[in-house]
Design a protein that fits this description.
Order of helices and strands: HEHEEHEHEEHHEEHHHHHHHH
Largest sheet: 6 strands, antiparallel
Number of helices: 14
Distance between the termini: 34 Å
Helix content: 40-55%
Strand order of the largest sheet: 2-3-1-4-7-8
Strand content: 5-15%
Structural class: alpha+beta
Number of strands: 8
Oligomer: single chain
């Protein structure tokens, strides 16, 4: 079942795994919490299902500078203490859109107010030159890279509330980020309204998001190159192709997109064609791949045609 027209580079969630997750979430001594990105699945559907199970909902950004997001903000659900009720709730929510990277969960003894305060801190990111951005932590395409990019002290602010944060990965399987045994956070981190990312952290997060951005561009411009199934594997291929583009010093976004189109149209070894040796030399010296393609002779296209097949080559000439 789909709740929106959004497309994701993900595979369907394995809802059969939610039995074990419900058992974990209802363990004695801690409260189970579900985090839902209601920018990706409809808030009214989430609210209706939660209401049916008596699960209270909390807007994580309601007391922050990002309160304008309202129903599109990440929402915390306080899960029922009974295993079968939690499992049924998780399954119903997971079935709203099995492709949406919108669900993660954890156990905590912290109050809803304390959790929302530190999740809002995580959302209200500040990067170089004091530029404020919204770190979409509830989107599970972003969550693992976000947590891994954080400093030890930054992770510690979140680890005060939970030892483990679980989610569905791109392949639809349950994964987790371990936060146990993290040292106490620095005083400076605890006094911040929003998390501060340095240039290295920011660049890492931008790089991690690039394959998803290119996936969206491919859907818009060359949808025939995007498979209908196993999009998690397709995302992995895009990430690998982008690494190869970087090795050739293809750095501008439109050229990196063109590199992907060529790879998908003409085969992932298209770049090894002898006809392109001069192209890569010029690119390494700062030339644009897209501009150079306008001057490729017919024999270069003929070589790529042999590699990719005539029925797909037209896609490379976008």
């Amino acid at each position: 079942m789909r709740s929106s027209n959004l497309d994701f580079a993900t595979n369907p969630h394995d809802l059969n795994a939610l039995d074990d997750q419900a058992a974990w979430l209802t363990q004695a001594g801690e409260q189970g919490w579900l985090l839902v990105d209601t920018a990706l699945i409809a808030f009214d559907r989430v609210q209706a299902i939660a209401f049916g199970y008596g699960a209270e909902i909390f807007n994580t950004l309601s007391d922050s500078s990002l309160s304008v997001y309202r129903s599109k903000a990440p929402h915390l659900l306080q899960l029922p203490p009974v295993r079968h009720a939690t499992q049924a709730l998780l399954e119903e929510l997971g079935d709203i859109d099995r492709l949406a990277p919108a669900m993660s969960w954890f156990c905590s003894v912290s109050s809803a107010q304390a959790l929302c305060a530190d999740l809002a801190w995580l959302a209200q990111a500040v990067v170089e030159d004091d530029v404020k951005v919204y770190a979409r932590f509830a989107d599970t395409r972003v969550l693992p890279d976000l947590l891994q990019s954080m400093s030890v002290s930054q992770r510690a602010r979140i680890a005060r509330h939970m030892a483990e944060w679980r989610y569905f990965n791109r392949s639809g399987h349950v994964c987790s980020v371990q936060l146990a045994d993290t040292p106490a956070p620095d005083r400076a981190v605890m006094t911040q309204t929003g998390i501060l990312f340095d240039r290295v952290q920011t660049d890492r997060l931008i790089a991690a998001a690039e394959a998803d951005s290119m996936f969206a561009l491919l859907l818009s411009n060359t949808p025939e190159l995007v498979p209908a199934d196993d999009r998690a594997a397709f995302h992995a291929r895009l990430a690998e192709d982008l690494e190869r583009a970087s090795a050739y010093k293809v750095t501008v976004a439109r050229d990196r997109f063109q590199f992907l189109v060529l790879s998908l149209s003409c085969g992932r070894d298209f770049d090894k064609s002898r006809s392109l040796n001069d192209t890569w030399t010029h690119v390494a010296n700062g030339a644009s791949l897209t501009d150079l393609m306008q001057g490729w002779p017919e024999h270069t296209w003929a070589d790529l045609e042999l590699a990719g097949g005539t029925h797909r080559l037209a896609s490379a000439k976008v």
